[in-house]
Design a protein that fits this description.
single chain; 108 residues; mainly alpha; 64% helix
């Protein structure tokens, strides 16, 4: 039930935001630029809120089916270990640049 409430609420907010844009457009046609600015801002916020509510509704629907898909999947395959975990032996480490005392590293 809450999924459909979010879905309908999201679409209602999107339509309300588009209505605000229409009001701002009519204000601009009547050369009322300063009144149209806040209306565009309000319309943008309401429109983005509707899009966010739709995203939340879709995520809730996907999360509702997640436990069923996870239970049907079975066991995860185990991955073979590529190499032992631990410190690298010094015989496998390449030597770095040598610096002479008194001369900074990187100076030519």
């Amino acid at each position: 039930m809450s999924y459909w409430l979010r879905e309908v609420g999201g679409w209602a907010l999107i339509l309300l935001g588009l209505g605000q844009f229409l009001v701002a457009y009519n204000l601009l046609l009547n050369k009322r630029v300063f009144e149209a600015g806040p209306m565009v801002f309000i319309g943008f916020i309401v429109f983005r809120g509707g899009i966010h509510l739709l995203k939340v509704a879709v995520a809730a629907q996907a999360a509702r089916t997640l436990p069923e898909a996870h239970a049907a999947g079975g066991r995860r395959p185990t991955l073979p270990s590529g190499r032992p975990i631990g410190p690298t032996p010094s015989s496998h480490v390449l030597p770095g640049p040598k610096s002479t005392p008194g001369r900074p590293t990187g100076a030519a």
